[in-house]
């Protein structure tokens, strides 16, 4: 401990370093970065005939090792400590005749201009730039100026560093401003995480003649796992990229020593584009008793299924890990913008990286299994992608679900893990004259034309609950008669389509603010308008306000299934303005006295949710709630009159009567959709 300075400023003091090396003796002192780790990077930029200057050499073995392996022999080492220079002259003078050690201050060097092809600095800049005080920064500027002076054009300044943000930013800004090319290499780790956690970097600054005017900056980073540099658009982005790698190293070190109390999430990005390729979640199961074969496993989530509760929520992943029976499970989600050859190629690509996330106590050379559903990576085909001024970038994709079912989905990429709309696809039917496939032939793939939309099936559980809420309509002849229904929020059109098709005399009005969604619903989800189905392109707030003033009490049911574009609010459905009291009173105005208002509420903020419920109670005398298992969605049924179906038994009977009326001969109906089941969990608030 006595070797440490009393203050960071002493790192620049010759007296401190003389005392340091006298007390340490002959033992070499390496700040960080052993020669085997640095060698691959040094070999790229140091040639055998180069004249090399090592600034702040200390008693590191780096110069000796470079000399001994034949990398370079014409090496000049300088340091401000007389004690260490004499020590190194004694140690290397007779065995390495072409290498010299000189007592010299790097801030005032005696060498002529353009004397060296390489200047090498291992930890010296880090030791000097301990703070951002004016005096310290002035010394660093002087150091950089001297290095620039003694380097030839085309020469390289190689700086081995831990890349603290202020150190890296200072070096990058200084040399890029001078017109130099700046490249940062991450040094491959030796794997000894116990010795040193932080990754080591080498800044490579290549000297070019400064071009008058504003020449473009060339800033690059080379991660340890690849040779090809990635171009960075700014110094800030380069510093951020380095910090990402430092954070990852710290994370790996932490979870390699102790179990994760909370699930850890991280993205692994594509080397070429820099876009996320895999999203990983690290899930530990303390309840699993460890044995040799159940420490660690990787679970590949099939494409298109990452939004399912089991894979897309913390609780679901926790359940998955426990049922898989492994102490640590890493789930891997595949991104729609990326291409994957198959399970074998994914395993080859991920094997090295996921082992950095291994749990403590993993036996040496332990085989780590890769798991999945059905042993494959699933199927995903993007059918359409575009950008809407209102909804942002979105995609329509076909995915394979559990078993043999295929589904079409609408995804807003600003919230890419949420399915905005979903519809089941029917199996493709042969055209006239086509033969049916033999059973032994290859199964159809999504590269072939898909079947039609299955309008008899509601994929979303909250849509099923919303339709079931129609059972609350009073009067024996209310269903299935000439219902007037207003739906705010079109999406893919599944909800209004279902109401239109199964209530044969119902008139459905849909309000959608984004005209792009009408195009998507029509082209990709089988939606169409007619005399009983009309879409109005308008803001739902404006449309309801206008109706309340001009045509009150005209709807049997009003349904809100509209998302919020503001992701900063703890309520993603509906937008907050849709549940403010003045607007809810307008909704009540357009309902018939015995009508029902059905609201899809998605709110993660408990305090905000309670405020919404309180406002609804103020406006509507009767309020029912149906929570959707495994989802955040909660369906609220609101009635304007005090008379209602308060008895759950009556609600169940009403649901069965409605379902019986809808199951007409020759009409498609999915057998898993039971209205009574939907209403049996309704709570009266």
TrEMBL record:
The keyword Heme does not apply. SUPFAM superfamilies: S-adenosyl-L-methionine-dependent methyltransferases (SSF53335). It holds the Pfam family Spermine_synth. Keywords: Methyltransferase, Multifunctional enzyme, Transferase. Residues 434-444 have a biased composition (Basic residues). The keyword Transferase applies. One of its GO terms (molecular function) is methyltransferase activity. Residues 425-449 are annotated as: Disordered. Residues 50-170 form the Methyltransferase domain. Gene3D superfamilies: Vaccinia Virus protein VP39. Belongs to the methyltransferase superfamily. This is eEF1A lysine and N-terminal methyltransferase. GO terms for cellular component: cytoplasm. GO terms for biological process: methylation.
